[in-house]
């Protein structure tokens, strides 16, 4: 992990990789993130940058790799997936978050975009399946319950592949 992290830094910064921050633009070049529809959210969630530039320290990078590793627990994977899907960072998945999530998964192109009616029906179905307390949003525990019933989530690593 350290070697991979330091290779993302300019040559002159590699000796001090432990104290350096890798810019988001470099993180996005990782093969695992290059084609990931959530790449920007992944950087946002794992970055501890005070500048809001989504750069990563070595610790941030380790956290990201650990969360997406095959050995990460379902709780860890689902916790980070929830944070990544919570686009407005308010601690719940509401209709706007779910719409952004669906758009990321289906692509933003006109040929793949759902109609308003299709989107509304899909969001309604998601909420009916997941919103246990019927408050119109999905909280972390509701999300984790749904994910625990999905063997594909753990088999395919959630977001990384």
UniProtKB/TrEMBL annotation:
Domain of life, per UniProt, equals Eukaryota
Q: Keywords assigned by UniProt?
A: Calcium, Magnesium, Metal-binding, Repeat
Gene Ontology molecular-function annotations? calcium ion binding; magnesium ion binding
User: What are the EF-hand domain coordinates in residue numbering?
Assistant: 73-108, 118-153
What Pfam families would the database entry show?
EF-hand_7 (PF13499)
> In the UniProt record, does the keyword Protein biosynthesis occur?
no
Q: Which InterPro entries does the record associate with it?
A: CIBP, EF-hand-dom_pair, EF_Hand_1_Ca_BS, EF_hand_dom
State the protein's name.
CIB1 protein
Annotated organism of origin: Balaeniceps rex
Q: Write the lineage as a comma-separated list.
A: Eukaryota, Metazoa, Chordata, Craniata, Vertebrata
Encoding gene, per UniProt annotation = Cib1
């Amino acid at each position: 992990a350290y070697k991979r992290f330091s290779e993302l830094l300019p040559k002159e910064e590699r000796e001090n990789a432990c104290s350096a921050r890798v810019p988001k633009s470099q993180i996005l070049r990782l093969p695992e993130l290059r084609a990931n529809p959530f790449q920007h959210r992944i950087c946002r969630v794992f970055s501890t940058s005070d500048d809001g530039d989504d750069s990563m320290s070595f610790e941030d990078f380790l956290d990201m790799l650990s969360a997406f590793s095959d050995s990460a627990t379902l709780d860890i994977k689902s916790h980070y997936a929830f944070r990544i899907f919570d686009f407005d960072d308010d601690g719940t998945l509401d209709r706007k978050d779910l719409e952004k999530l669906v758009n990321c998964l289906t692509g933003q192109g006109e040929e793949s975009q759902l109609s308003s009616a299709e989107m509304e029906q899909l969001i309604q179905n998601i909420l009916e399946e997941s919103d246990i307390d019927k408050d119109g949003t999905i909280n972390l525990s509701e999300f984790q319950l749904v994910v625990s019933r999905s063997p594909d989530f753990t088999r395919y690593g959630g977001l990384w592949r």
